[in-house]
Amino acid sequence: MDIDKLNWKILRCLQENARLSNAEIGRRVGVSSPAVSERIKKMEDLGIIEGYKTIVSPLEVGYQLKAIITLRAFMGKLKPFLEKVKTYDEVVNCYRITGDENIVMEVVLKNQKHMESFIDQLIVYGESKTQIVLSDVVKQKEIKSLK
Amino acid sequence: MDIDKLNWKILRCLQENARLSNAEIGRRVGVSSPAVSERIKKMEDLGIIEGYKTIVSPLEVGYQLKAIITLRAFMGKLKPFLEKVKTYDEVVNCYRITGDENIVMEVVLKNQKHMESFIDQLIVYGESKTQIVLSDVVKQKEIKSLK
DNA sequence: TATCTTGTGATTAATTTTGATAAAAATGCT
DNA sequence: AGCATTTTTATCAAAATTAATCACAAGATA
């Protein structure tokens, strides 16, 4: 598909605020609202748009800590972990990666005690390394059109 | 603020699909749409809701690679980097962390050449370590109410 | 020329917003 | 505790806005 200038303009609006109305987007990008609606639907169908998420502040809802945890899985333990990780409420992002470690996760935790018990759960799957997040430098930045 | 059962129900809807109408959310959680509207506005004002983002597929728009890059900043180079990183289109997430490395970033890249030139830019700020993302195991999972 | 795509404008249905009112919860006083 | 007052928050209804759908026109494609 051709993801043209107009679609990028629409995507820029939607990435910045997914709850904008089609009419408002249309006003901003200079096209009618049915056109916006149709283009959004098509981008959804094509998988360009994967979804619309609300960003909830972990701090405001009681998660005092954020951490990056990497895991070097034991022999035969990677696959079981890939299944198990989906059930952890604490894990907001998890990637399989190349290199020494197999997994990197972003997790939210209530407090030190919660962190301790969470890390304890990982022991059976491999060696984990925890790095506490001090601050968000860049958060959920939009994806830009490439030249 | 009391983030009660009803607000969590609303947040669950919004995290799953930020573009649901207030009326539809109201139907699902059993209140009128003005009630939903008012509660959402209050959660926005209080910073519980940080925003509404559209998730764009990096692959579908031409970014073939995703990577996790950590940076161990040179003496005096951390602060300049924290400013510079905001200007990088490739960086979709960036955290300052504890431990050996100071920074962990999630980046999207067009190809190997692009990766090479991006990593080259980092050399002046510190030692970087790059891990290619093989797959998303868990992506942007919603934040749950804690018991 | 014929066909396919995509935007516009119009119509109708649905939604949001606003203000008025009522119910519920919290607060204060005896 | 018991009761009245205040505050908060929900509902309802009307008006304004928006979304979905349609026919049709303008370009692009074959």
Question: What is this structure's SSE topology?
Answer:
2 copies of one chain form a homodimer.
Chain A: H1 5-16, H2 22-29, H3 33-45, E1 49-56, E2 65-73, H4 78-84, E3 91-97, E4 103-109, H5 112-122, E5 126-138
Helix pairs in contact in A: 1-2, 2-3
The first copy, chain A, binds a DNA duplex (30 and 30 nucleotides) through helix 2 and helix 3.
Write structural notes for this entry.
Chains A, B: InterPro entries: ArsR-like_HTH (IPR011991), AsnC-type_HTH_dom (IPR000485), Dimeric_a/b-barrel (IPR011008), Tscrpt_reg_AsnC-like (IPR019888), Tscrpt_reg_AsnC/Lrp_C (IPR019887), Tscrpt_reg_HTH_AsnC-type_CS (IPR019885), WH-like_DNA-bd_sf (IPR036388), WH_DNA-bd_sf (IPR036390). Chains A, B: Pfam families: AsnC_trans_reg, HTH_24. Chains A, B: Keywords: DNA-binding, Transcription, Transcription regulation. Chains A, B: This is Lrp/AsnC family transcriptional regulator. Two copies of one chain form a homodimer. Chain A is an alpha+beta fold. Chain A folds into two domains: 41 residues, Winged helix-like DNA-binding domain superfamily/Winged helix DNA-binding domain (Arc Repressor Mutant, subunit A); 68 residues, Lrp/AsnC effector binding domain/regulation of amino acid metabolism (RAM) domain (Alpha-Beta Plaits). Chain A is built from five helices and five strands; from the N terminus they run αααββαββαβ. A four-stranded antiparallel beta sheet of chain A has the order 3-4-2-5. In chain A, helix 1 crosses helix 2. The longest helix of chain A has 13 residues. The mean pLDDT of chain A is 96. Chain A binds a DNA duplex (30 and 30 nucleotides) through helix 2 and helix 3.
